[in-house]
Every structure is written in structure tokens, then in C-alpha cells.
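Attaching the record inline, Q. Sequence:
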Amino acid sequence: MLASATSINEIHSCLVLTNFVDSKISGASNTYSKEEMALIHLGLRRYGNYLDHDVIDPKLLKLYGGNASQAELMKKLFSRQQASFIHYLSDRYSEDKIPTDYAIAIKECSIKTGSQGDTALALKKAINTMTKH
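Structure, as predicted:
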């Protein structure tokens, strides 16, 4: 899996960006139809879930030698950092339309983390929808 060569901080940054963009889509009704927003939400949420549970959790467990308590503590720290980062991005980026750069960055994340199957397909549809506007 490609994610094994990617640092946990890099993967977490991908998760934060994915969650941020997902949170902004709901306010973009002037840019995207309801169907497009649903498609984007589905792809971003599946990918975020994949990163969180299928990539980050196992990497943390491996990093802490299987110590689930330590891995959980680090995950809580990541969650606090994520909230701060999303707040920072929201302050700097108040428009509802998602810049193409963000969609491209999420696509690059997906290449690094090796998403596959339904998750990869849903994310591809989400990215294509975001970049066509």
C-alpha cells in the first residue's frame, strides 16, 4: 500500500483538508446542485473515513507497538489539531466555492494513500464534480 511510505502527519493533513472541503460544500448551493453536493459529500466522507480508520488507525498502532491506549491519545491530539486547522482555514477562506487547488490537493492525497474500490470511485466523482465549476 502506498500509504505505508507516507508520513502520518502528511496523511492527517489530507484528512483535515478533506474534512474542511466537505464542511464548505454545504454552503456552496449557488455553485453546486443538490445532487452534485450529495455526490461530493459522499466521496469526501468515504475518503475521510478511509483515511481515519483504514490508514491512520493502523499506522498509529504500528507506531506505538500495538499500544492501543497510546494510539488513541495521539488520535485525540490529531483531532484537536484538526479543529484548530479547520478553524484557521475557515477564517482565511470564507467563500463557498471550493478552489480547484483544493480538489487537486485531495486528488494528490488519494494517490499517496492508495484509496481503492468504491472509495476511490466516489472520491474521483467528487473531485471531477468540484473541478468542473
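The longest helix spans residues 34-63. The chain has one domain: 2-131.

More tomorrow.
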